[in-house]
Design goal:
It is a single chain. The chain is mainly alpha-helical and 82 residues long. The chain has 3 helices and 2 strands. The chain has helices at residues 2-21, 26-40, 44-62, and strands at residues 65-66, 75-76. Helix 2 (26-40) runs antiparallel to helix 3.
């Protein structure tokens, strides 16, 4: 049972990690953020306005995008600012 839980956790972790690392631009992370808001938030438009748009603006200035803590909080840099 413990092995099955460990395998499931590892699979979930690697699927989230590969989803994030596949992005190479600020707009790619913005699209991913929008999708997550639409799938998980009670009010998707507010989520997009309060979380995704400010992160996109910051990414376009710095070239770095930091995911929310809920999705690991990873900081991705050297992104295309488009």
């Amino acid at each position: 049972m413990k092995i099955a839980i460990s395998c499931a956790f590892a699979l979930l972790f690697f699927s989230l990690a590969s989803e994030a690392s596949a992005q190479s631009s600020c707009s790619g992370f913005f699209s991913q953020c929008q999708s997550r808001c639409r799938a998980n938030a009670a009010d998707p438009e507010t989520c997009i306005a309060r979380i995704c748009r400010p992160k996109l603006a910051a990414c376009r200035k710095s070239g770095c995008y930091q995911e929310t803590a809920r999705f690991g909080g990873a900081n991705h840099c050297n992104l295309k600012k488009s």
